[in-house]
DNA sequence: CGCCGAGTTGAACTGAATCAAGAAACGTGG
DNA sequence: CCACGTTTCTTGATTCAGTTCAACTCGGCG
């Protein structure tokens, strides 16, 4: 159950087996079936979550009922609403399993314990968040400056398997267009390339 | 010269005077005049930089010659291209002073030293980057889902003084519209509100 | 078998970009 | 202190990318 987390952590920092064994005691394993929710908007996000297996999405729903996807959480990634987790305020995000998933949850008290007791984990999370920030900044700049087609091409390049694993309308709400527009883009790209 | 940094660090973590005194030895103070560049695209970002005083912008220029602003760096903020700084690859960003500024630069070796020698700084940067990630995610979701007018209103709410300090066309390239569109938006908002 | 969600396609519409021109504000040098 | 060019901002006309609304197809599943 902890294989992927162990692998990911070891790729980033050096820790002893004892330290990782200690970390293991702080996580709660959880299986989540497809279409089930890890978090619904209005709730407080009580956990930050590592995806051992499966696929999730975190998204908001606007006043017109449209969904906007912040993130797909695949194997080896973390999901959760950081702001709600840290402040205890209600979340505006929903987190839903797109495939049957195996998760490792950690509560805020346990997380704080982990950071205090094992400084290497402080570094692990710093680097993790750092990489996430870089990726999010890239996506933001792309969203500001590129056309729908460019954003779609970039997504396919960054996550080649995503279009097989998730429905097209979710890809549309990730890149910030309607499903109709994405559909037209795809047919153009097939005929024109 | 280190007042603001000291204040900001103390707001986030607890460190001893010796630790901060040590940190001070690792920074290089630098004054940067208005319109001068701290980083130009194509260069490697050699420093991550704290703004003691003044105002900077980091931005890219696309193939059509349009500017896209990632960030305004004001007093108490950090600026730099994290990706280039960490990997040593050429940066795509430009960083320019919008006002005469006083900066504290730290090189990668010094930064690593700081993180290794003073674990509290590892935490400081983790929290700093965490907050930055939350803000960037918010801005991304806003860019995906909101209209130009909503994004402009949000900017004014988040940074009330920005529209006095920077030219309108830069605000336009921050929210991802042309200066003409922003100009029309502003005249609408004045007449209609 | 019938229904429902997912995807496609068409037509009309709209928010924002582009192109173009002029007005106002600014800094710099004489 | 004024004259100059430069940058910034505005306004209008036109174009275009992407939305909206609507109808239809396809595949899966109860």
From TrEMBL, chains A, B:
Residues 30-115 form the Cyclic nucleotide-binding domain. Gene3D superfamilies: Jelly Rolls. This is Crp/Fnr family transcriptional regulator.
């Amino acid at each position: 159950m902890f294989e992927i987390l162990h692998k990911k952590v070891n790729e980033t920092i050096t820790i002893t087996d004892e330290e990782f064994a200690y970390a293991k005691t702080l996580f709660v394993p959880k299986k989540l079936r497809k279409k089930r929710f890890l978090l619904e908007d209005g709730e407080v996000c009580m956990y930050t979550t590592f995806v051992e297996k499966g696929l999730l999405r975190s998204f908001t729903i606007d006043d017109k009922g449209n969904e906007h996807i912040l993130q797909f959480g695949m194997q080896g990634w973390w999901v959760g609403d950081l702001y709600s987790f840290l402040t205890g305020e209600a979340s505006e995000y929903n987190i839903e399993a797109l495939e049957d998933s195996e998760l490792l949850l950690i509560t805020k008290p346990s997380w704080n314990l982990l950071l205090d007791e094992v400084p290497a984990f402080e570094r692990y999370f710093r680097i993790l968040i750092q990489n996430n920030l870089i990726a999010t900044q890239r996506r933001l700049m792309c969203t500001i400056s590129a056309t729908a087609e460019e954003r779609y091409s970039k997504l396919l390049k960054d996550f080649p398997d995503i279009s097989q694993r998730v429905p097209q309308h979710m890809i549309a709400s990730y890149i910030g267009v309607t499903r109709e527009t994405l559909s037209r883009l795809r047919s153009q790209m097939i005929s024109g390339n």
